[in-house]
Structures are given as C-alpha cells and as structure tokens.
Design brief:
Structural class: alpha+beta
Shape: elongated
Protein name: DUF6495 family protein
Low-confidence stretches: none
Order of helices and strands: HHHHEEEHEHEH
Radius of gyration: 21 Å
Strand order of the largest sheet: 4-3-2-1-5
InterPro entries: DUF6495 (IPR045470)
Number of helices: 7
Helix content: 40-55%
Pfam families: DUF6495 (PF20105)
Distance between the termini: 45 Å
Number of strands: 5
Length: 157
C-alpha cells in the first residue's frame, strides 16, 4: 500500500465507486461476499488497491494545502516542480486564528510585530503525490487556495 486505507466512512461515501472497481475486475457482489468471508487477505488487498487508486486521483488534483493551528498557518501551493510555502506565525498567545475572532485579528494586524510572514519553496521529489500525502498526514488539508491567494497578494505589495 502506497498511501493509507480509506476509513469506513470514506468507503461508505465511495460505495458506488467501489462497486465499479470490483466490477472492473469482474468481481460480482456474491463473489465479493465470499471473498470477505473466506479470503480475508484478498479482501484486504482489494481494499488497499482501491484506497491507493482513490488517493492517487485526489492527490493528482491537489494544488493547494492548508495546515492551520492556533498560532500558525502553513499555506502550500503545489506547482509542477515545487511546493511553495507561505507561513504565518502569531507571537500573541491570546490570538487563536482557528477562531473567527482570531482570524479577524490577524487580518487587521498583518503588519504587527507579533505577526511573522515567511515564504519558502522546495523542489518536488520524483513522487509528487507522496510529498503531498506526507503533508496531509501531518495535518494539512486540500483546499481551493483562496487563503494562499490572499496572502500571496499581500506579500506582493
């Protein structure tokens, strides 16, 4: 397995896609029930292969990631060759940017000396999707990039 097995909830959400996946391997519903009962190792392998296929599709589409904690924001933009980072660190312990109030404080105090903005870029390895998946495992989530765009414009000014 290259990534991670989907959760029970994710499998439930992708129920029809999983049925199509089994059908593409000429596995009927009855055969799948038999495999689950009598060939648990084969069933596990099928779940893992399907999970990797789903992850591969999701990661291929990922262009932006965010990892937000109470006093730090990490925004990632994935290009063909690099992962670009905008990092925001808040030195004020009373500000929690995961709340509306804290985020509003950040927007109004971007130039405050308690706010540090950093940028960085890292070359993507030979396995782009594995690089992205590693960030997801550390807590990042895939986004549409609005927050990245907001801070990118701010940094250009």
């Amino acid at each position: 397995m290259k990534y991670a097995r989907l959760t029970k909830e994710q499998f439930e959400e992708l129920h029809q896609e999983f049925i199509n996946f089994l059908a593409s391997q000429s596995i009927t519903s009855d055969e799948w029930e038999d495999i689950k009962i009598n060939k648990s190792k084969v069933a596990e392998e099928e779940l893992d292969v399907f999970s990797d296929l789903v992850w591969e599709g999701v990661l291929n589409q990922a262009k932006f990631l965010e990892h937000i904690s109470p006093n730090q924001i990490y925004l990632f933009k994935i290009t063909e060759v690099t992962i670009n980072l905008i990092a925001i660190k808040i030195e004020n312990e009373t500000v929690d940017v995961t709340t509306r109030h804290g985020y509003n404080w950040l927007q109004q105090n971007l130039m405050h000396d308690q706010v540090s903005l950093y940028t960085s870029a890292k070359a993507i390895s030979e396995d782009r999707n594995k690089d992205i998946f590693a960030l997801i495992q550390q807590g990042a989530v895939i986004t549409k990039g609005e927050l990245y765009g907001f801070f990118e414009k701010h940094l250009e000014n």
